[in-house]
Amino acid sequence: MRHEDIFAAVRRNVGEVMDDVDPAAVTLDRSLADLGCNSIDRAEVVTLTMADLGITVPVMDFQDARDLRALVALLARHAA
Asked: What is the sign of the dihedral through the CA atoms of 71, 23, 14 and 2?
């Protein structure tokens, strides 16, 4: 799966969970926390995105995903 498609799914789900976030603010260099997501919001964005992609990622794998670029790369490794 292409990184662009995964990022589009992440961006869409950030918008669903955090309707007050400007879509233009959702960039690869930002983290979900930078966008104002608390831990529950972050879990919801990730869960919705995994469901969209039809994948499962072990929770421990997310500890090194510091920004959306790393999150997209992590999801892409499991979507292969």
From this structure: negative
